[in-house]
Amino acid sequence: MTIxxxxxxxxxxxxFIHYHLKAHPEDxxxxxxxxxxxxxLSTLAPVKDNRNFRFYKLDICDREGVYKLFEEEKPDAxxxxxAESHVDRSIENPEIFLQTNIIGTATMMDACRKYGNIxxxxxxxxxxxxxxxxxxxxxxxTEETPIHTSSPYSSSKAGADLLVLxxxxxxxxxxxxxxxxxxxxxxxxxxxxxxxxxANCLNDKPLPVYGEGLNVxxxxxxxxxxxxxxxxxxxxxxxxxxxxxxHNEMKNIDIVKLxxxxxxxxxxxxxxxxxxxxxxxRYAIDPTKIHNxxxxxxxxKFADGIKKTIRWYLDNKxxxxxxxxxxxxxxxxKMYSNR
Length: 339
Ligand code: NAD
Ligand code: DAU
Known about the structure:
The chain has 12 helices and 13 strands. The protein is of the alpha/beta class. It has one domain: NAD(P)-binding Rossmann-like Domain (Rossmann fold, 3-Layer(aba) Sandwich), CATH 3.40.50. Helix 5 links the parallel strand 5 and strand 6 (175-180). Helix 1 (11-23) packs across helix 7 (222-235), helix 2 packs parallel to helix 4 and helix 4 packs parallel to helix 5 (152-171). The N and C termini lie far apart (49 Å). 2'deoxy-thymidine-5'-diphospho-alpha-D-glucose is lined by residues 85-87, 125-127, 181-182, 192-193, 196, 208-210, 215, 217, 252, 276, 283. 2'deoxy-thymidine-5'-diphospho-alpha-D-glucose binds at residues 85-87, 125-127, 181-182, 192-193, 196, 208-210, 215, 217, 252, 276, 283.
């Protein structure tokens, strides 16, 4: 089987490619990635010489380029990870989110329709459900929870999800959607909470906690997400949405304190800064459907996963130090100075 993986030079797509080439050595994996600020070829260095792996620098919105690629590679399935993924950037500049996340999704699905009704999987997010109140720990997102977005990012992902379901109903495209909670693990771009706090802690820089740090996220080790996607692509029911998450809710401030403790630093590094606009309070996934239908369960406990992740950042300093020494610095100054 030949699988096109979009956005494979990013965090989850890159981890997925590593996982997939090991788990299914008989498959060919063709990665396409535009290499935006979030795409990093060094993430794919461990697989670059694998004879079942190919990389193309390509924008998923480039219809001509995408069609040419489908003609050359004749894929059996497409897994769309490519996206603008950072909420804070979407608040600053929504337009590119609409372009990549919505138009790019439509372009990839049009190619799937044109070249033989190819199996299509959309990697979506629990953020399409909006948020849950902090004082109702009994509430969870199920696949039936109404779409109710907060940020330009989540709205663009929700728009894409609706298009995916429409392509199934209207054209009979064989699609599935996964909606996952917050991932953490190796190769996570240091603009996101966990890698940002690890990098700042290691550099003895202030740790910028939004608001009071009481917002809750439901964390999943990235490899568990990759396994869930693999199962859905192989065994999921066509036209269905699957929520993915591991019942691991934590307050932001508790994550930051845990990182400080693991790295032997001091809590005086914590700096409370102005809250994110429209900040979602709590995410919490009910994964009953994927568990009952596909037998998926998360395998990595948070206590182990966070240690492995911190170890990875300690052992792979060159990967993230190169990122934070470049254009990232301008981004950081713009987002955090005088906040
Ligand atoms: P990321 O920002 O780390 O990586 C995105 C990748 O997509 C980068 O390599 C980038 O170069 C590429 N890309 C961006 N625009 C492109 C375009 N127009 N054409 C081709 N490539 C393009 O993102 P991530 O955290 O790995 O997220 C991957 C997917 O998973 C996204 O769709 C995101 O919405 C979803 N998701 C992420 C999380 C999370 O916690 N990170 C959780 C649930 C769902
Ligand atoms: O739930 C899935 C989503 O998780 C994905 O769809 C997104 O692509 C991914 O970026 C992530 O979104 P979040 O907004 O939850 O992740 P982020 O790491 O940006 O922030 C996590 C929490 O930490 C959030 O409540 C905001 C807070 N935060 C974040 C940063 C970057 C801080 O307090 N300080 C920070 O500097």
